[in-house]
Model the fold of this input.
Amino acid sequence: MNIAALFNELQPIYKDKLLLSTDTTALIITQDQLISLLSTLRTRHGFNLLALLTAVDYPDHYQMVYHLMSTKSADMVTVQVNVSKSSSRVPSIVSIWSAANVQEREVYDMFGITFDGHPYLKRILNPDDFTEFPLRKSFVLQSVNRQSLS
Amino acid sequence: MTTDRLITQEFSLNLGPQHPSTHGVYRVILTLDGEKIVHAENVIGYLHRGIEKLAETLTYPQFAPYTDRLDYLAGVLNNIAYTQTIEKHMQIVVPERAQYLRVLFGELSRIASHLVCVSSMALDLNSFTGWMYAFADREKILDLFEMTFGGRLTTNYARIGGVSKDIPDTFMSAIRSFLDSFYGRLKDFNDLVSFNQIFIDRTKGVGIISADQAIDYGLTGANLRASGVHFDLRKKSPYGLYDRFDFDIPVLQTGDCYDRYYIRILEIIQSLRIIEQVLQSIPEGTLMGDVPRVIKPLAGETFHQIEGAKGLLGFHLVSDGSKSPYRLHIHAPSFVNIGIIPEIAKGMLIQDFIALLASLDFVLGEVDR
Done:
């Protein structure tokens, strides 16, 4: 499906809260309309499979990325939400897809983004007592000096 | 003593991470009432190596071998998914012969991975002989890998723009003799395990996942198709050369452990069909397309996914125009597939739970990344 056509169809509903990304590959929505947009896409437009959920750490904000897919036609749509670094909060979409449960936990674990409404938000891949958020750009990989270990 | 006066106490039991039927370092905390599961909680991350973070420190070609370590039972498919993502982003054209070789080894990987699934399931349900049969055949596939590109599990076969090695002269006769014997072996395996009454009793009607549940929990691959959803990316949205081959997508309706098991046998047969067509029509030609000396994709985002051995394997690449990815997210099918375990496990007996774990066919290299 053409993203631009979908955008034109949805634009009257969400007005200035919905934008098309500059490379016309993704819909950008504000946080307060995220749940509404994703459930509309799932129920009315047939995008019934959550194909990917992740985050990207940009210098001035985080960006949540949702790739939705239709199991009937294999059409895809990408939805993006910007998350400010000061709040690091975004609504959870577990109510729409149970598949988001583990994937939001992973994003929380790696980026420290809090999902409001998530039923069980705790670390999933890193140890529970780990204090860093490793996929943030501020977390720099560095080697430990061998001598300092001994 | 009547049962209604029997007071039972719930207790917790740790299954894994070192347990033969958890297929790797998967751990689940079970709360039990007698033998019935009241609550299950997945505990994963024992194999977490931070592959996504490592990707940000490596150049694009350097990262390719790391993809073998995701789903290490089907390394070639991971290589293909990664290299196709870069190729899609940079619009690199891959030569015909290289594309055919990718399909050939990709499907062989799929068969090898499915053989591990069905044989481990037999082993978990007490059929050691069945396990030996399928593993012997998987060995022969790994021999074909070794003969061509040296690696058995850590394949590193696909390169950005093509593949690393051509098939040796002896390959055609070797794969022919493997295929000729494999059809008979598959029949033997079916007689031993698939149509074995004990095996059927242990798996039929156990761990049923409905189509709606499967989609809600994001299940993909054979696990989704066993629940009656006709969804295979090779047919629905063909990538590479898959639109050229004649094959069917098996779909089963019940969504129980037996269907999830048997659909893999059916998929092996379809993969064999694809392989036969590749062997008949593979053209001569070069193995590498025109690839810049230094891989520096333009700034932008690309999402690419393929039908991996365990389900939809997706790579989300964000490039800032430098030599290494700004962000590379790997959507691993096993990671999402095991998210359904706590839901399905409720009310199951422990022995059925083992069948459920085996039938979901997850691999921890991919779950933990």
In short: Strands of chain A lie at 18-20, 27-29, 49-57, 61-69, 76-84, 89-91, 114-116. Residues 99 and 133 of chain A are 22 Å apart (CA to CA). Chain A touches chain B through 35 residues (CB under 8 Å).
